[in-house]
Amino acid sequence: MHPTTQLAHDLNDAFAALNFEVYEGPEISSELFEFDHMNFPADHPARESMDTYWLTGTADERAARRLCLRPHLTGASIRYMSEHEPPFRFVYPGRVYRNESTDARHERAFFQYEVLLVDEVVPLTTGKFLVDTILDTVFGTPVVTRMRTGFFPFVEPGFEVDMRCRVCGGEVPHLRTGRLA
């Protein structure tokens, strides 16, 4: 099995053991779910064809009628929340597509994994504990992680999670920016 596929299965199993649902949204989506509902301004660069794969024949359309290959997974959260009642505890893994030049750090189709936990009270410490628990479970040993703030137009506050490389331990000289302590 491909390592990315295996990791996705392992993550799904770890989250399912904590009563998270695994959700998969469609790979063909719309401007409505991918941008409008996510609070991307109408003139945001991500809406341009140089970043998003728009389906032929929908370029003159707007909102739900303008179709694209999903450029990120977050639009699936709106779909999920419109079909279910809170509180929400789900993960959504999947392939996404971006019109990018391929190089060592960029690919036109790649895999993302997102988690959404919405309840009346969820402290940030719970998020950090959840991340550490999941990664410890998947990798079988403690993993050094950090949560750092990140701006996303669709959530406040927003965070990104980094983990120390399991191969080099964070010691690759050309990858030392933002190195985990």
From TrEMBL:
The keyword RNA-binding does not apply. Gene3D superfamilies: Bira Bifunctional Protein, Domain 2 (3.30.930.10). It holds the Pfam family tRNA-synt_2d. Residues 1-114 form the Aminoacyl-transfer RNA synthetases class-II family profile domain. The keyword Zinc does not apply. Keywords: Aminoacyl-tRNA synthetase, ATP-binding, Ligase, Nucleotide-binding, Protein biosynthesis. It comes from the Bacteria. Coiled coil: none annotated. This is Aminoacyl-transfer RNA synthetases class-II family profile domain-containing protein. It comes from Actinokineospora soli.
